[in-house]
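Hi,

I'm pasting everything inline rather than attaching a file, because the server keeps stripping attachments. The sequence lines come first, and each chain or strand is labelled.
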Amino acid sequence: MLIRVINPNTTQAMTKLIGESACLAAGPGVQVEAVTPAMGPASIESHYDEALSVPGILSEIAAGEAAGAAGYVIACFGDPGVDAARELATGPVLGIAEAAMRAASILGRAFSVVTTLDRTRGRARELVDRYGLRSTCVSVRACEIPVLDLEAKPCAPDRILAECRAARDDDGADVIVLGCAGMANLCTLLSADLGLPVIDGVSTATAMVTGLAALGLHTSRRGEYAPPPVKAYTGLLCGFEQ
Amino acid sequence: MLIRVINPNTTQAMTKLIGESACLAAGPGVQVEAVTPAMGPASIESHYDEALSVPGILSEIAAGEAAGAAGYVIACFGDPGVDAARELATGPVLGIAEAAMRAASILGRAFSVVTTLDRTRGRARELVDRYGLRSTCVSVRACEIPVLDLEAKPCAPDRILAECRAARDDDGADVIVLGCAGMANLCTLLSADLGLPVIDGVSTATAMVTGLAALGLHTSRRGEYAPPPVKAYTGLLCGFEQ
Amino acid sequence: MLIRVINPNTTQAMTKLIGESACLAAGPGVQVEAVTPAMGPASIESHYDEALSVPGILSEIAAGEAAGAAGYVIACFGDPGVDAARELATGPVLGIAEAAMRAASILGRAFSVVTTLDRTRGRARELVDRYGLRSTCVSVRACEIPVLDLEAKPCAPDRILAECRAARDDDGADVIVLGCAGMANLCTLLSADLGLPVIDGVSTATAMVTGLAALGLHTSRRGEYAPPPVKAYTGLLCGFEQ
Amino acid sequence: MLIRVINPNTTQAMTKLIGESACLAAGPGVQVEAVTPAMGPASIESHYDEALSVPGILSEIAAGEAAGAAGYVIACFGDPGVDAARELATGPVLGIAEAAMRAASILGRAFSVVTTLDRTRGRARELVDRYGLRSTCVSVRACEIPVLDLEAKPCAPDRILAECRAARDDDGADVIVLGCAGMANLCTLLSADLGLPVIDGVSTATAMVTGLAALGLHTSRRGEYAPPPVKAYTGLLCGFEQ
Amino acid sequence: MLIRVINPNTTQAMTKLIGESACLAAGPGVQVEAVTPAMGPASIESHYDEALSVPGILSEIAAGEAAGAAGYVIACFGDPGVDAARELATGPVLGIAEAAMRAASILGRAFSVVTTLDRTRGRARELVDRYGLRSTCVSVRACEIPVLDLEAKPCAPDRILAECRAARDDDGADVIVLGCAGMANLCTLLSADLGLPVIDGVSTATAMVTGLAALGLHTSRRGEYAPPPVKAYTGLLCGFEQ
Amino acid sequence: MLIRVINPNTTQAMTKLIGESACLAAGPGVQVEAVTPAMGPASIESHYDEALSVPGILSEIAAGEAAGAAGYVIACFGDPGVDAARELATGPVLGIAEAAMRAASILGRAFSVVTTLDRTRGRARELVDRYGLRSTCVSVRACEIPVLDLEAKPCAPDRILAECRAARDDDGADVIVLGCAGMANLCTLLSADLGLPVIDGVSTATAMVTGLAALGLHTSRRGEYAPPPVKAYTGLLCGFEQ
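And the predicted assembly:
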């Protein structure tokens, strides 16, 4: 079974990190393929970045369909392009925010999201609403570290930890959701310090997609997620429409 | 890894059916143990039945903790006792309604629940609200077959199928959620006829709990799901308090 | 007219206190009977405690039906077993959280709940949602005094008063709801100090149930609250099913 | 104890009917005074009518304060002027829609409102939202009989009954809420035919206000319901501002 | 095209200020007429004031219909009488709270209302809910200056500015909505200091009503906003019913 | 003042139609420029189409900024790319669904959307939720005519009219919102037949944007809509990032 994990930005180092997280969730007989789109932004920190990432994501879904992928993970916490991806894909498609937030609401009653830049908090809250989790999400906090500095900056783990502690002590969080795929490698460290479950969306989404696909469950081919009507496209090609 | 799947009613034939469904989701290295409580109702078709099933469920959680279970599935669509079970359990605990409804909202945009008796629809709608899925659930339909007649009555599959078709054609459902653990063996048949994903909560919950447990994620030990304060109990013993 | 007021825990001293509160609301011609279940926890401070209290509550409802009770009050702020109790009862059944919160939303526009342990705040918020009062409830505060220490600890009134003042001054509460049946005797003291209405759920629920019953209104016998289907139960007997 | 029941329209025959309903709920020691305002519309069937009824209602509240009333019922299903009335009143103030809907959500899980004109259904739904009861209210139905024809038209009971039956059979209602004070005398007839609790807001509100007042509970004097600031008014005098 | 802008209070100086704000939004061919009702309160700072302002507002709508007005603005932040006014008016009717809040949700993602007295915040929040903007409104703040002191008190601009800064810095507001028609002249000053859009409802509502009327759009004459049924009124005459 | 109206699809005939609608709302001194993106789908009938339209829309916003546009209309009923566009634009940006739905909730109390294909109804409902209008939107209906057939098919007006009538008569709609920019020319015809306001989003959005821009109001430059961080983009260029 092939699970395709798509890094929506074009930074290869981050694809590598994402692939490693996804592999934690891949049992025997599951092949994880982490891919980088050919077009898009170097990181996603605005609605603009997110919009420009979607055509590249969809190209990777189209390529995955050609390769017989059994399911997909979209590894950016804004869950970009998920609806369009589900129209193209046969297997399940899951964004890491949806996976992490749903898992958090199974493991506790009050989760906090700790994310990168303050300006992305609105999108996180919008997803909380979309997934119906407003009564379970007690806060969305930002550590004000740009995505691509997460690995580079030595102070990053400390600042993330400080926000997690504030989420626990001031907001009453009983579970932490990491709000960026680039934070995945901090999971164990944070959980040990905090005494709380800390959820990385990449591995969680991979586990869920694998589990659904193994049961033969696929994206509905009827209604809103039916394959898109065939038509002409100008200037942007994602491979599906050909 | 041991996953304990608890049939909240005392009917052994149903435990056997539930165990078979759960095993569909158990990969290599996972042992599924389907158990029947020593006390409780023969089937669950009212709030009263549900209330009386909970002490038996909690005894099975306490026994599972003693046996080192890595996670639990509560295999009744009313998700009875889930909050209390999470207070007792180290690993993840998941009811089949929560698992099935969350999966349905990943695979489509408009799911219907098809359940047994009309009088249980209120509880199903209450769970839809609890899990924040009101905008994704388009209907809750009942086939008016008592739980223990699901296997016995030859007409049961036809009546369930009729409700599923009505959900698809009249309510616009693109995914079907089976509203009773006793319907699990109809999944393939229904899905083939309807051309829609049909979700059985038992196998789906087993897959999700296994996936979360494999990542080392557990129920939060802080806040609302912390272990209950120690105190005296009269007349009802579940094994935890000893 | 007989109103049965059920203390869901097994502590007799608390039943006595509850009975005194209920009697404040019983006019001429109304007999209040405060009862203690034969099984259950000594106090209710977790989902586990709440679950184990329900069979005892239901036994008291069944006994009340045999005795011709006109209505019931369930005197724990978690409103345990209310749905199941309504299936068994002919007259109205009311939990003290529902009664107090509905009264608070008549007397003001911004109520706070002041309860015992922090870990029970989640259940209180869940009830706020169930009763549709999220826009009227401005906070749920805990004084961190265990239920059975409320009477014993000399500092209890001061700590409760401090939380009430914070609710008024910091959260903008214009009405206080006492979040435990064991606080009822503090009503007058708190109200005088705060200059706010302070609501005890036991007396309020008793007044409401009495009022509804006097008008001949009863629990609906159709749909979700119809009497439970007859079936076999193992190991747990509440008297109804016999 | 004096309870003032205000008929918001100027039709004396309706005041008489309302007074009779209220008296059903008045136990020993309670005096019910049903009053007709000196200004306002002959009946309330639009937002315009409702707006013009409010000054007359407020004059009756001001007069009630002078007379030492312990509480108030506003006997129109649109609950006109309730917020302003609470600013003027010492005791509890309750509209009949709020009373009836809250009672309905105690007695069942799915109530229907059966009201007069179709054009008033929007206001009823708005009140359902204000009181947080959207998940309990399954429909708002109109029998298209003008308010003042309810008593005059021989066909009125049959048309009201027909809508109640449709609410029960088509919408799944388990409780009926009568959507006009002028329907109160039909309660017993309808309930016997339907096999459901049928709630008249006038008697229910009277019972609730009496119960709260007897416990010494009053409208909060702090925050939004504090007495209005003193100032000049031109052309409209309600007695309070003098 | 004639747009009638109604000051719901009887203070002429405020009508003048409102007229000046409205004229900012009136392009060529649009005549703005700011009017003061003959009856009502000197300012609106309670539910009581609001209730007493409505008959005067409706008289001005009726007079506007006689004069052929193309649309109406109700220039008080509580949007008093809007539903009744829409029943009387042919053209669009808009309150300044609705206009300002809808504009704020177009220009940003997180608006704060800064209003006069603390006791009016409840009404502002109620309107936020009515207009469906709860997820966009991050706070409602009061500067505790009475309406008629806004112009007189030299310290008023500073106190309003202080609340706006707190909204921006503590609540994360990206747009400010002024919560009183009497603050309109501060718009430019505040916006320059804060670096945020600051919205005055009077000019915004005038622009929206003018735009809708210019497209030939009118209030629906069917359903809830159809003209009120003809009937007798006692003691209060607004000109419509004659 | 220059208002840029962007047709998100690449079909020139539709741009012409959109430009004509927008000009209806442009008063003296306002120049409307209707533009067609250089890349994107021929029409928008799926999430996939919508995703592929966004880069083209953003290029037109970037070009508009260079040309000094005072505001923007995005003329597709899915409001594609609105958040990203607001990050790039100085003036107000408005999608036609948002404009039409907000106008509908001013003119009536119960609007219906009548759109093209059934599969797009989910997106319309999602926008209803985003704009907080769930209690005002009574239905979303589809006439099952593809976007590009709206002008070509002679039967199109009749099918659209049939759905509008059903919305009025079966769903109780008092206002109709046209769910596609390609229906704008039917407004007068439909309104005359139905006796209801019928709202075209293109002209309404143009009027609103013009009105806001004329008052000097702009998109907030702080928080979520601040200009995007500068970074590298691969393969997709919209002109902003250069």
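The two ends of chain E are 26 Å apart (CA to CA).

If the labels don't parse on your end, tell me and I'll reformat.
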